[in-house]
Amino acid sequence: MLSQEVLSEVKNTILQGIPKEANVTEVEFEGPEIAIYLKNPKILVDDSELVKELAKRIRKRLVIRSDPSVRMPPAEAAEKIRKIVTEEAEITNINFDENVGEVIIEAKKPGLVIGRNGVTLKEITRTVLWRPSVIRTPPLASEMISKIRHALQTECVARKQILRNIGRRIHRPLLVKDGWLRITSLGGFREVGRTAIFVQTAESSILIDCGVNVGVSMQAFPRIDLPEFDLENLDAVIITHAHLDHSGFLPFLFKYGYEGPVYCTKATLNLMTLLQLDYLDVAEREGKLLPYSQKDVRKAILHTIPLDYGEVTDIAPDIRLTLHNAGHILGSAIAHLHVGDGLYNIAYTGDIKFSKSRLLEAASSTFPRLETIIIESTYGAPSDIMPSRKRAERELVEIINATLSRGGKVLIPVLAVGRAQELILVLEEYMRKRMLREVPIYIDGMISEATAIHTTHPEYLSKDLRERIFHQGSNPFLAEYFKPVEGAGSRPDIIEGDPCIIMATSGMLSGGPSVEYFQLMAPDPKNTLLFVSYQVEGTLGRRVQKGWKEIPMKNKEGKTEMVNVRLDIKTVDGFSGHSDRRQLLDYIRKLSPKPERIITCHGENSKCISLASTAHKVFKIETRAPQNLETIRLK
To answer: Taking the domains of the chain in order of start, what are their residue ranges?
Structure first.
C-alpha cells in the first residue's frame, strides 16, 4: 500500500465522520498533519469535539482550513478583524498566508485577540473564514525573524509542496513487523562539539542534532561519512537547540540533497538561523572553507516544522516525537522518541539545566514512558561542582566593582544566545539596586538581535520574568544601562573612554568582536577579562584561561604580532546553562519513570566515563559512555 492509498483511507474515514454540509473539497498531507479544506468550516468551528474524535479515530493530527473560494478577500478580512478585536489589543500587523488559509495577527496584547476560551478567535474564523494565528508584538524588533517570515511568505508555494512531500513520507505504511532500534554516535561523544546521533529502526532513520566544533579545524564536523548514513533515506532531523555545536552543520545536509523535515521549537528556528548565518560570515572573514551557503540556510528554513513543548508528532511511520523544556537556552528541548506501537522510548537531553534560572524554568524530568536516556556530561567530573547562583552573582559584582574602581574596563565574552541574556538580567538588577557601579554596558555582536528574538518568544521565559514584563510593566532587556555598539568603528573609542562593562560575542574568543576587544584591552593590567561560560579545548578562550601570557594574533594589516596578556583573567562559575555534576545526578534520580539504561555524551572523555560509572554505582542501572562511531542496539 502506497502513501497515496493511506491518504485515500484517511479521506474516506474523514468524509464519513464530517457532516456533508461542511462540504469537504480537499484532504491532503501537510507535514505531520492532515489538512481538511472545507467550503463551510463554520460547522467544525462550532463543534471542536467532532474534530477531536475524528483525530482520535484515525490517530493523526488534523488541521481545518477553509477552501480558497470562500475566504474573504485579505483587505476586507483585515478590516473586519480590526472591528471584531477590541482596540485595547493594539494590533500592529495582519498578514495572510493564502496557501494554507492562515491570517497572522500581531498584537501587543494577544490575549485580547484570542478572547476568553478562544471566543474571539472563533468569531474571526466564522466571519472571515481564515484560520487565525496570533503572535505577540515584541518590544524589540527582530530583523532575523522578519527575514525568516519573508522567506516563508515568498516561498509559500514551494513550502506547501515540501510539506506535502514530507507528509507522504511520514504516513507511508509500515512494512516490517519485528521491530528493532539502535543508535550510532556520529559526533559529540566523549567530546564537546559537533553533536550528532543517528537513530535507526527497521522502518526509518532519524538524525538528532547536527553540529560543528567551532574550536578546531580538524574533526570539526560530524561523521556522516558512515556507509549506512544515507541522506536520501533520512526521515527527519531533530535540532534540540540553536547553539552551533548542535545546529551548525544542518544546512550542509541540504547542500548535498536532503529534502526532509527539520523539527525544533520556533525559538530554535529563529536563533539557529541567526547563528548559522553568523558562522558563515565569520568563516568568510577568516578565509576559511565554507561548508555551505546562505542558500542552503534558506532551504533549511523552508523544511523546518516548528513544534511546541508537549506536542506529540509523527515524524516517521514508526516514530513519534515530543519536545520538552531543557532549561538550557531559549527554546532548548529534550527530544523524546516513542518508537513503534509501544516498542521502545528514548529521550536525549541535549544540553540541560536542572535548576531554575532568572531566564528559564528548570528542565523537565517526567515522561510518559522511558527506557533509555542519553544525557550530556559537560560537567560530569567529580570536581565539577558549581557555586550557588547567588554566590556566583556576588563574585561577579565584586570583580566588576574592583575593576571599575581602579579605572579599568571589564570584558565579558558571552554566547549571544543564553548567557548574554542571563547576564543582562543580573547586571540590570544589581545596577538598579545600586549594588553595582552604574556605568555604560556596551552590547556588541549578535547579542542585541538574539535578545530581540527572546522578547518575541515570552512563552519560553521563566514565570517570574514573564510576570515582571507583562504584569509589572518592567522589561529589564530595555534598561537604559545597555548601549548597543554601532559598528566596529566605535570599539577603539570605547576602549579609550571611561570605565565600562563590555559584553561581546563570541563566548570562547573564537571569533566576533570579543577577539578585537581582547586584543585592544590585553596589555592594560587595570582591565579584566571575565569568563562566565565553558571554554572548549582548542579555543583562544581556553588558552587565555590556562594562563598564556603571549598570544600570536593578526593585526588590522593582517600581520601576526604577539599580544602581551597583562589584564586580569577571572572565571566565575555558576552562570552556565549546563547542569553541574550534582544536578546531573539529581536529574537522573528524579527521572520519572526510571530508565533501564543511561548513555552519556557531550563531555570530555573522562567526564563522560565518570558520570556513567557513578550513575551505574548509585542507581544500579546499565550505563554506557560510547565513543564516536559506536553503535548500540537498544531493542
So the answer is: 3-69, 74-137, 173-382+578-633, 389-571
- Contact between 311 and 490 under an 8 Å Cβ cutoff? The reply is no
CB atoms within 10 A of CB 589: 12
pLDDT per residue as tens digits for the range 98-123? 888 999 999 999 999 999 989 999 99
DSSP state of 366: B
Sequence-distant (≥ 6) Cβ neighbours of residue 457 within 8 angstroms:
266, 267, 270, 330, 331
Concatenated DSSP letters for 246-296? HHTTHHHHHHTT--S-EEE-HHHHHHHHHHHHHHHHHHHHTTPPPSS-HHH
Q: What is the per-residue pLDDT for 362?
A: 97
Residues 6+ positions from 21 with CB-CB distance below 8 Å: 40, 43
pLDDT of residue 556: 74
Residue-level pLDDT at 285 = 82
CA separation for the pair 299, 546 (Å, rounded): 41
Low-confidence ranges of the chain (pLDDT < 70): 1-2, 215
Please say whether the structural domain 389-571 has been given the CATH code 3.40.50.10890: yes
Please count the residues of the chain. Answer: 635
* Residue 506 contacts residue 518 (beta carbons within 8 Å): no
Contact 280, 294 (CB under 8 A): yes
Say which residue the cell 572565571 belongs to: 571
Distance CA 466, CA 449 (A): 19
Domain 3-69 in CATH 2.115.10.20: no
Q: How far apart are the first and last CA of the chain?
A: 27
Cis peptide before 593 (omega within 30 of 0): yes
Contact 468, 428 (CB under 8 A): no
CA angle 486, 491, 494 (to 5 degrees): 105
Q: Tell me which amino acid residue 1 is.
A: M
Per DSSP, the residues of 433-474 read TTSS----EEEESTHHHHHHHHHH-GGGS-HHHHHHHHTS--
Q: Which residues of 348-357 are buried (b: 16+ CB within 10 A; e: fewer)?
A: bbbbbbbbeb
Question: Model confidence over 156-181: pLDDT tens digits?
Answer: 899 999 999 999 999 998 887 778 99
Strands 181-187, 196-201: parallel, antiparallel or unpaired by DSSP? antiparallel
173-382+578-633 shares the fold of 3-69? no
Residue-level pLDDT at 258: 97
Q: Domain 173-382+578-633 is in which class?
A: alpha beta
Residues 6+ apart with CB under 8 A from 37: 24, 25, 26, 27, 28, 65, 66, 67, 101
Gyration radius (Cα) of the chain, Å: 25
Report the C-alpha gap between 490 and 504 in whole angstroms: 13
- The fourth-level CATH superfamily of domain 74-137 is K homology (KH) domain (3.30.300.20)
Strand-strand pairing, 333-339 and 344-348:
antiparallel
Q: What 3-state DSSP class applies to 219?
A: coil
Provide the pLDDT for residue 2: 61
